[in-house]
């Protein structure tokens, strides 16, 4: 399938990807668009299309994320697309706010608009990761304990820093964690700020499902299941909801599955001799009630202790 754009011709399904047909023009320079991986001749993303972007002169590789939703021009379009389009703009805004401030959050380079059939689709360009956590852990099941723990620590810092900026991520899951490999050094960064919310703002619909199934916090599930009926359950998705999702992610990092239901230490498999401490941390992050769920200082305390045990 081929779309004609103002400045870009994009063959989304992989045809013609070799012939440098797909590009954007920035400051009179052509930047070419390719699939992220050769073995996956398509774009990635649910609400967007993510591709690799190459400057042929410098050979620098970036990632480009196009919104699937264009700028609404009519009331009808606004009703149908406005929220999703605005979420993409919020993602860009938040990425500029944290740019160059925190090392474990993906760095935006620039943003722009492409026109397709008279419709304006926003996009942004960011540093390109080598892979995401889901792909990586499936391919590297032998990753050692220290590295898994460092990964938990890096992503915890990223989320903590977003919270410092009064931003909640709300979409914490393995495919939104990106890996940068550099001469044997690892850096994990949080990406996909497409569902963020600023503190004290609420643009969500009543009863809207916010976040991915399987990773939702109790509050997100309450919102989805009960908010319309005003049953007085906690439906407020906030920083503590990110902690819940992070607890699931920590478990995934060690076990490669996601915890559902009443978790027991016997279900938690690690080679760590003091795995009880890690299990305690995760189970406190996964408390149903926010009032007893682990807080950021609690997690910092555990992380310091576990790091010492692991000689990190
Ligand atoms: N900077 C990047 N470098 C390399 N790969 C990336 C980058 N950003 C995103 N990806 C890949 O593209 C996928 C989709 O990106 P992202 O999650 O930002 O889009 P999305 O449309 O919000 O996706 P979804 O709704 O499916 O979570 C990621 O899971 C990751 O595999
Ligand atoms: Mg994503």
Structural overview:
The structure is a single chain. The chain is an alpha+beta fold. The chain is globular, with a radius of gyration of 21 Å. 33% of the residues are buried. It has 7 helices and 13 strands. It has helices spanning 75-98, 133-139, 145-164, 218-226, 239-255, 275-285, 296-309; strands at 2-4, 9-11, 23-26, 29-34, 48-55, 60-67, 108-116, 119-127, 131-132, 167-168, 177-182, 185-190, 197-198. Helix 3 (145-164) runs antiparallel to helix 5 (239-255), helix 5 (239-255) runs antiparallel to helix 6 (275-285) and helix 6 runs antiparallel to helix 7 (296-309). Residues 175-176, 192 line the site of magnesium ion.
Q: Report on the biggest sheet.
A: 6 strands, antiparallel
Using the coordinates above, name the CATH class of the largest domain.
Answer: Mainly Alpha
Strand content: 15-25%
The total strand number stands at: 13
**What ligands does this structure carry?**
adenosine-5'-triphosphate, magnesium ion
Query: Helix/strand/pairing class, anyone?
Result: alpha+beta
Would you kindly provide a brief summary of this structure?
With 312 residues, this protein is of the alpha+beta class.
Fold topology:
Elements: E1 2-4, E2 9-11, E3 23-26, E4 29-34, E5 48-55, E6 60-67, H1 75-98, E7 108-116, E8 119-127, E9 131-132, H2 133-139, H3 145-164, E10 167-168, E11 177-182, E12 185-190, E13 197-198, H4 218-226, H5 239-255, H6 275-285, H7 296-309
Antiparallel strand pairs: 1-2, 3-4, 4-5, 5-6, 6-8, 7-8, 9-11, 10-13, 11-12
Helix pairs in contact: 3-5, 5-6, 6-7
The structure holds adenosine-5'-triphosphate and magnesium ion.
Adenosine-5'-triphosphate (ATP) binds at residues 36, 44-48, 50, 63, 65, 106, 126, 128-129, 132, 175-176, 178, 191-192, 194.
